[in-house]
# Entry
Amino acid sequence: MDKIDVYNYLRLIPKGMVTTYKDICDFYNNKAYQAVGKILHNNDEQFINPCYKVVNKKGELSFNYKFGGIEKQKELLLNDNVLFIDNKVDLSKCEFKLKFITERLYLRELNESDIISLIEMMNDEVMYYYEHHFTKEDVIEWFNKQKLRYKTGFGLLGCFLKENNKLIGQIGLTIQNIPNKEVIELGYIFNNLYWHQGYCYEASQALINYAIKKGYKEIYSIIKYNNYASQKVALRNKMNKISEFIKIYKGKEMLHYVYRVEL
# Structure
């Protein structure tokens, strides 16, 4: 991790969000928090490389902010519409926890500020294969489930376009059950406005490469029998259909196919 790495991370952070020293180090699999601090302190371009968008893991600002101290940092963040609770950033709504970058996308953990976009995205066409309308309460329950999963290192991440920070989908690794076995599943849901443009495959490859680095031996995708678009993505990910089973969801029996790729 060098200054270019840190600056590239900072440049992805959209208006209204911040990151932490820990988030940057976690992304680069490095615990050199002090090194990040030194890089930020030596930064000469506070807006090109927006170091003011970095706070500590409690949301506290820096008394040593190079370009005017803590008051100037808070002023800049308020101008960016970052939310505060007293003098701390509300990380539940503003934290930018980057996980993966691809050519056109970045993937990060969802936070509370994404709920409105999730409600918009999880419309009846997108969620057709669940065979029920997702209410606002359903989406919030879904979001809270992902937040719990993040604590275990899994969960569906938000998938965003680099060009405009638009949330276009969710994708990630989760622990799922199939008959007689617990597996790691690659799951994905994308806004119907962004289907057939290769975004899901692009994001999938980042997660599969991550799984390989983690030493996982196989990855699964569990897909409803009539979800042909998701099946095409599985095949493009070099997965093979190995079985099928009936999944019970909200009292309904749904036939699902099990796809697998050995890594």
Summary: Residues 14 and 165 are 7 Å apart (CA to CA).
